[in-house]
Amino acid sequence: MITTHILxxxxxxxxxxxxxxxxxxxxxxxxxxxxxxxxxxxxVTTLTEGRPMAAGTYRLTxxxxxxxxxxxxxxxxxxxxxxxxxxxPEEHYHVPLVISAFGFSTYRxx
Length: 110
Prior knowledge:
- The chain has 110 residues and is mainly β.
- It contains 1 helix and 10 strands; from the N terminus they run E-E-E-E-E-E-H-E-E-E-E.
- Strands 1, 2, 5, 8, 9 and 10 form a 6-stranded mixed sheet that branches.
- A hairpin with a 2-residue loop joins strand 3 and strand 4 (29-37).
- It is globular, with a radius of gyration of 14 Å.
- The model has no long low-confidence stretch (mean pLDDT 96).
């Protein structure tokens, strides 16, 4: 399972309503396999729901530009892309994103 959540450190709360796309790399192509929108807690837990997981390279794309425009800000980063490896498809991979108007960071969560 692959899940994520977004925390907006500039506002001190979860980032709601952010579109997140999950893709898997196959050869030189990125194949979309999941899409969701962050809920009131800033979480998306359904990206891989009903799909078998496989080892490989995955990418999450976060539409933080639209989120910041909705907050009345002019975004510096229109999106954040996070690429990571899944070695054991039986494990839970939680990939959070921490954002502000002019930066973002990520890590492997639990």
